[in-house]
């Protein structure tokens, strides 16, 4: 373990957090996907950052691009405890045309290339490249040690997925030693894992490199006019072909309850986002947010505890199989199978069933909402009914393929103007 700790002290995490996440529709109109709220009080990026910190990595850089203000503000408020005098850093690296006056970040690899001088200043031996938009708990120490022991040029974090579902991913073909022999982007016939014909290895977008090796590779890639300057499209296939690329199985480093399945979610659609949040209201959710040994760190607002008021028939403040965050006031409202973020205020005779309400939502009297996602700061008008008539809902709101209704304030304002 001491050696592992030394390895993490010689490593940094480079978090790629610049993508919009357009499949989340209006949820990313004002914020980048890693800044989207999740789980009652956290943001999506908190999982990658918490994994790095809990693993012992204290040097972190976050590359941002699309509508980054919400993300930057969150990191400044919630992740401002790193101390440079202890060799700890959290640097935010917005795309700022550092190479020339025309080039923003042109791809995931280019985001690192444009900040080579900053990574050099950290004096690290290893770089862990992370996507900032997935929900999971992982000990990067284990992956880093495996990388060093294997003498790999790159080690790629891989999910074990059913082979019939692997066509949605970049898939790794590996030999018996775990060495990657080919990388196929969304193949129609995914290669099976050795000894497991019904399973395949899918890339998580997590890479471990020796910095000296990656630095040289990035500089050569930058000079290639035919490159898209992307890890998955360009650099990884090149290493698989001409170097030593090893697969690291997420099952080996996932942090979870004993006996629980490995948990990893891409909450990249409205349906997936809603489902992953609602899953947290289960009796024993697969994602353990109550783990004191591997906490998910975040910015915590100073708010009072949640309050439930009124106790009359039809006007009782209660919540069943739900998560209710600090600052919420449940005033005569029945809440079931729902997740309420900070300072959601609901009023008498309203009901919420399978609802994800982001911070500062207000629900007025007699509103009846089910199977919905409500964006931050939305004011639900008195008597609004959502979730009973999909065709009526679709006139004003976005109804997903799975039947989840996404409600934003702009949608409500247009509805009010039309009625």
Automatic annotation (TrEMBL):
Glucose-1-phosphate adenylyltransferase/Bifunctional protein GlmU-like C-terminal hexapeptide domain span: 304-407
GO molecular function, one term: ATP binding
EC number(s) stated in the UniProt entry for this protein: 2.7.7.27
Keyword entries, A-Z: ATP-binding, Carbohydrate metabolism, Glycogen biosynthesis, Glycogen metabolism, Nucleotide-binding, Nucleotidyltransferase, Transferase
Binding site for alpha-D-glucose 1-phosphate: 105, 170, 185-186, 203
Pathway annotation: Glycan biosynthesis; glycogen biosynthesis
Entry annotated with the keyword Ribonucleoprotein: no
Residues marked Could play a key role in the communication between the regulatory and the substrate sites (site): 65, 104
UniProt entry tagged with the keyword ATP-binding: yes
GO biological process, one term: glycogen biosynthetic process
Domain Nucleotidyl transferase, chain residue ranges per copy: 13-281
Catalytic activity: alpha-D-glucose 1-phosphate + ATP + H(+) = ADP-alpha-D-glucose + diphosphate
Family annotation (Gene3D superfamilies): Hexapeptide repeat proteins, Spore Coat Polysaccharide Biosynthesis Protein SpsA, Chain A
Role according to the record: Involved in the biosynthesis of ADP-glucose, a building block required for the elongation reactions to produce glycogen. Catalyzes the reaction between ATP and alpha-D-glucose 1-phosphate (G1P) to produce pyrophosphate and ADP-Glc.
Family recorded in the similarity comment: Belongs to the bacterial/plant glucose-1-phosphate adenylyltransferase family.
Assembly and oligomerization: Homotetramer.
Protein name: Glucose-1-phosphate adenylyltransferase
Species name: Paracoccus methylarcula
